[in-house]
Design goal:
- This protein is of the alpha/beta class.
- It has one domain (5-114, 159-181): Maf protein.
- The chain is 39% helix and 25% strand.
- The protein has 6 helices and 6 strands; from the N terminus they run βαβαββββαααα.
- The protein has helices at 16-29, 53-70, 118-125, 130-138, 148-153, 160-176, and strands at 5-11, 33-39, 76-87, 90-101, 106-110, 114-115.
- Strands 1, 2, 3, 4, 5 and 6 form a 6-stranded mixed beta sheet that branches.
- α1 (16-29) crosses α6 (160-176).
- The mean pLDDT is 93.
- Its EC number is 3.6.1.73.
- GO terms for molecular function: ITPase activity; metal ion binding; nucleotide binding.
- This is inosine/xanthosine triphosphatase.
Length: 183
């Protein structure tokens, strides 16, 4: 039996649900590798609650760049950032994922989006972060490190780690799909 090649992926977050989503996603798409996923603190360089797709994407990219600078030997560096966007009068929450290879290539993906209620949006506009609002409304602590707001809103049919898996797989597609689509 051939020994699997080691693959080091460093995520710019210590959030357990984000680390779990990275591990689960990579186990699906990088089956021929021995995976090591490390979560480290990394600054987003954006507001605690990003309020546009552009700001959310920038936060994810800043996190990925920060961890790549800290771990230049990593095969991939990642940033995941949740934020809010507006389409017409509707406000949606989603997450952006940025993957940087040690060779300088970048992959980008997003999670699914879900609508925010005016009740939640009003509290966000007062300066409260979504995670804190959900903790207050649910009576639970640290929801964002567990099922996330999307878990509560979907009665755990789609938890935070599951929601981010889609974005992670999309962001990595550049690195594992047929090169005919990219080069």
């Amino acid at each position: 039996m051939t020994e699997k090649k080691h693959l080091l992926v460093v995520l710019g977050s210590t959030n357990p649900s984000k680390i779990l989503s990275v591990k689960n996603s990579l186990e699906k798409i990088m089956k021929n590798y021995s995976l090591e996923v490390i979560g480290v603190k990394a600054p987003s360089g954006v507001r605690d609650q990003p309020m546009s797709d552009e700001e959310t994407l920038k936060g994810a990219e800043n996190r990925a760049k920060s961890v790549l600078a800290q771990y230049p030997h990593a095969d991939f560096a990642m940033g995941i950032e949740g934020g809010i966007s507006k389409i017409g009068d509707v406000f949606l929450e989603n997450g952006f994922v940025v993957v940087l290879s040690k060779n300088g290539e970048k992959g980008i993906g997003t999670s699914g989006s879900y609508q925010l209620s005016s009740k939640i949006l009003n509290k966000i506009n007062e300066g409260t972060e979504l995670g804190d609002i959900v903790d207050e409304l649910s009576g639970e602590e640290s929801v964002k490190t567990k099922q996330g707001a999307m878990g509560l809103l979907t009665k755990n049919l789609i938890t935070r780690d599951k929601a981010y898996e889609t974005g992670i797989i999309f962001a990595f597609s550049k690195f594992y799909s047929d090169s005919v689509y990219w080069h």
